[in-house]
Specification:
It is a single chain. The protein is of the alpha+beta class. The protein is 43% helix and 14% strand. It is built from eleven helices and 16 strands. A four-stranded antiparallel sheet has the order 5-6-7-8, covered by helices on one side. A hairpin with a 2-residue loop joins strand 12 and strand 13. Helix 1 runs antiparallel to helix 3 and helix 9 runs antiparallel to helix 11.
């Protein structure tokens, strides 16, 4: 609802409506001599009265006021998502006041005072209107996830900037008293205003779903291009979970080479925040994770992902060699450095290239990265435990040393 209110408000403030004229202004009294040190030429007087004010209180003031009021209400409803909307709230109020002041002042001011006040309020009102729209739109971009909603946001911003340049031309034409080419710019303004407002309305499904824990650590609804990559690969239509239940989560981590890298994984929306927090804590501790990629990069093949030592989360699949659904299929499990921390059962181990890491004693293990194996009480164990995960390395039967699962869904295998 808030986005719809803002969109209607921006429609009213962005397009000039010219309904029937209203109440006539008091007859203009030409000033004599200088006014406050300003010699007001007769040409300026004529220009202001004819090109800016007119003879009556034009009812185009009403859409501006209604538009600002709708924006105030919409912005107020969205403030729970971003406190930066406070500036938009202030600007909308000021814009509405300036718009009223510009049109009402001639009832109270006359002569030189009317001319000077109009020349001050006209550009000021225009500038605040543009500033208000900028703050509203760009703050909305910030709460609608600029990754998941990238295309829509860019189209919205482009179309809005087109309207800004067209309205600046109209403003300048009004100031110099040229109106012959004005209609062309007005048509451009109307067209691109409708286009950017359409894009703005499309952002409503993303509002409030973007969460950021720290810079570089955020989650959002799954972007369309990621959905396309997942469908039929790591995600299949089912009765257990939908893509809307999941979140695309981005993190930073230190690789085995000591360099900071970007990672991405899909988790259930209910654990997105604690996942970001856990990886942030590992990042601050410079804990080495070789790579964090979506299993879709391996065509949904979990074995290939593990063999490449890829840390991952969601993959709609069953437990290896069994028919029961894995916790990864619901987005509640995360695997860390799987080749170094294999899944070991009586009937074998996974991945198949992890044989040298079956020996879990660092003093005896011959693996190159034995110092990065996960053990009870180490950094990875403590960080994930504090953030509500439990470790598969503590199972009584099988041992899944790579596996951390949200505690409410933890089961001993």
């Amino acid at each position: 609802m808030a986005i719809f209110l803002i969109a209607i408000g921006l429609l009213f403030t962005g397009i000039d409506f010219y309904p029937a004229t209203g109440i006539a202004y008091p007859a203009y009294i030409k000033p004599q001599g200088e006014f406050h040190g300003i010699d007001i030429k007769e040409g300026i007087q004529t220009y202001v009265n004819e090109n800016i004010l007119g003879d009556t209180l034009r009812l185009d003031i009403l859409p501006d006021v209604i538009g600002c009021l709708l924006i105030v209400i919409g912005v107020f409803l969205l403030m729970k998502h971003n406190k930066r909307y406070i500036s938009s709230l202030f600007l909308a109020v000021v814009t509405g006041v300036l718009s009223v002041a510009l049109r009402v002042a001639p009832f109270y001011l006359n002569g030189g005072e009317r001319i000077v006040s109009t020349l001050l309020l006209f550009p000021l009102s225009f500038a605040f209107k543009i500033w208000m729209e900028y703050r509203v739109l760009y703050t909305t971009v910030g709460i609608s996830d600029n990754m998941a909603n990238y295309g829509t946001n860019r189209r919205m911003q482009f179309c809005w900037w087109v309207t800004v340049f067209a309205r600046v031309f109209i403003f300048c034409l009004t100031f110099v008293g040229i109106s012959s080419v004005r209609h062309g710019y007005e048509a451009v303004t109307v067209l691109f205003t409708l286009l950017y407002l359409y894009q703005l309305i499309q952002t409503r499904k993303y509002v409030g779903v973007y969460k950021a824990y720290r810079e570089g650590f955020n989650s959002a609804v799954i972007p369309d291009y990621i959905r396309e990559k997942m469908e039929g690969v790591t995600f299949h239509e089912n009765n257990d979970i939908s893509l809307d239940d999941l979140r695309y989560t981005r993190v930073l981590h230190y690789g085995f080479d000591g360099q900071v890298k970007e990672g991405e994984l899909i988790v259930h929306q209910s654990i997105a925040y604690q996942t970001m927090r856990a990886f942030y804590q590992l990042y601050k501790l410079e804990y080495p994770i070789e790579k964090i990629r979506l299993v879709d990069e391996y065509d949904g093949d979990d074995n290939l992902s593990m063999e490449d030592n890829n840390s991952s989360a969601f993959n709609y699949r069953t437990v290896e060699g069994k028919e029961e659904l894995s916790k990864h299929a619901l987005g509640f499990a995360i695997d860390i450095n799987p080749r170094i921390n294999p899944y070991v059962r009586e009937d074998g181990f996974f991945p198949k290239n992890a044989e040298e890491y079956l020996e879990r004693d660092p003093a005896l293990c011959q693996g190159e990265h034995k110092d990065k194996m996960i053990h009870k009480g180490d950094i990875a164990y403590k960080v994930f435990w504090r953030n509500g995960f439990r470790w598969g390395g503590e199972w009584n039967h099988a041992k899944d040393y790579q596996h951390f699962v949200e505690k409410k869904h933890y089961e001993d295998l």
